[in-house]
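Collaborator request, handled under Task 6.
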Amino acid sequence: MITCRTRLILIVLSSLFIWGCGEAFIGRLTVHHAIEFAGKEDEKITLSPGTYETALRFNKSASVFELEITDAGENTRSLNLNASENIRLPETSGSFSVDAVGAGQSYKIPGTVSSEFSKTDSVHDFEFCTGQRTITDCSGPPGARCRQVWRTFKGNQSVKYHFDNQAKSLSFDLLEPGTGRNLAGYRGETERLYKIYTYRGECIPELF
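Structure tokens returned to the collaborator:
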């Protein structure tokens, strides 16, 4: 479990990111030289050199990157980086470059996204299901005709499925414009599993 102690937020002014909502990268932010940014209410935040266990999430609707950073302190802080131009991150693999500004200081942020895909073996199993069938209903008043009505039932069905796994890596650096000095770097990964059905049998009613 990731402990939310210090929170670093990178606000990127672009609606062109095409990543899934809430996709979380687990990794590390390594600060090589002390860097200062603007936080909430113009608070200035300095990150000292060191390595921080970091979870990164991108809020697509708000165009916000949020990093949850674990350090020795018990602080929760917000740090902003505003992109100076529209950018597009690769969905699976590729490179990107962002010019950003934080606390009046400019940064260049080159980065890469890479993905690996794998597939598990096929699994044969039985799963819960619901279905409908007709029954003869003779519950009317005496003399009334019986009728066929639909009823929903619970049951089980034979299935075959496998999982497709996508492992995605994200890396970027914070560079000082002009000198190209590497101030900090982030490396993180995320995984997604997709359950793929290749067969669904008939729903068989449970026996009572």
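The cover message to the collaborator said: "Residues 6-117+166-191 form one domain. The CA atoms of residues 30 and 208 lie 61 Å apart. Please let us know whether this matches your experimental observations."
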